[in-house]
Amino acid sequence: MDSILTDHTPDVERRLAAICVKSRDCCSFFKAREGSLVKLRECWYCAFGDFDKEGKDLPTQGYCKCNK
């Protein structure tokens, strides 16, 4: 498991291309998913985080869909 966490705030502010994120990454644009009981400031729990949650294994890589 990757223990290095990345803050993607500068990437979201520039928004030149899709931003690949890991489940434990974060940024200052975090917004908790509606109905989520967990409020950890990580991409996995963010309303803008897009991870394939239907697969067998929990994905560690996804995309940020923040429109800022």
Map the helices and strands.
Elements: H1 9-14, E1 19-22, E2 49-50, E3 61-64
Antiparallel strand pairs: 1-3, 2-3
Please tell me about this protein's structure:
This protein has 68 residues and is mainly beta. The protein is 9% helix and 15% strand. It is built from one helix and three strands; from the N terminus they run αβββ. It has one helix spanning 9-14; strands at 19-22, 49-50, 61-64. A three-stranded antiparallel beta sheet has the order 1-3-2, with no helix packed on it. The radius of gyration is 11 Å and the shape is globular. The termini are far apart.
Quaternary structure state of the chains depicted? single chain
Question: How many DSSP helices?
Answer: 1
Report the sheet with the most strands, covering strand number, pairing sense and barrel closure.
3 strands, antiparallel
- End-to-end CA span: 30 Å
Taking strands numbered 1, 2, ... along the chain, how are they ordered across the largest sheet?
Answer: 1-3-2
Overall SS class: mainly beta
Mean pLDDT, all residues: 83
Number of strands: 3
Q: How large a portion of the residues is in β-strands, by DSSP E?
A: 5-15%
- The ordered H/E elements are HEEE
Shape, please? globular
Query: How much is the radius of gyration in Å?
Result: 11 Å
Helical coverage, percent range: under 10%
Low-confidence stretches: none
